[in-house]
Amino acid sequence: MRQSLFYKSILVGACVGGALSLIHRQTRTALSKNINEAKRGIVYVSTHPSEIVQRCSQTMNSAVALTTQTLDLTIHLATQFELLIDEFEKKRIHK
């Protein structure tokens, strides 16, 4: 019972705080602007789902290509480092 009252009090406090913050004109304007932008974004996504899928696919392909390049470079550098160590050891043995 007490826990339920606690959560209800938090919810009521948040609602009252949100309502009080809307007294400020700039806050109302910013909220309205953000809601309109979000609504436009939702409408765009819902009317162009194939474009969103294509963009996600392109982004994933770019991420995979970048990861592949990074791994290739890492392998190359590790190989070069191993060769350098081998060369250093050969010179140390011959001294």
Describe the structure.
This protein is an all-alpha fold and 95 residues long. The protein has two domains: 1-47; 49-95. Helix content is 94%, strand content 0%. It contains three helices and no strands. It has helices at 2-21, 25-47, 49-94.
List keywords for this structure.
95 residues; mainly alpha; elongated
Can you lay out the helices and strands and say which pair or pack?
Blueprint: H1 2-21, H2 25-47, H3 49-94
Briefly summarize what is shown.
This protein is mostly helical and 95 residues long. 94% of the residues lie in helices and 0% in strands.
Q: How many strand segments?
A: 0
Q: Helix tally?
A: 3
Whole-number count of domains: 2
Order of helix and strand elements from N to C terminus: HHH
The overall average pLDDT, rounded, is 91
Beta percentage is under 5%
Question: How much helix, percentage-wise, in residues?
Answer: over 70%
Computed over alpha carbons, the radius of gyration is 29 Å
Taken from the alpha-carbon principal axes, the silhouette is elongated
Termini separation comes to: 83 Å
Unreliable spans: none
Global structural class: mainly alpha
- Major sheet description: none
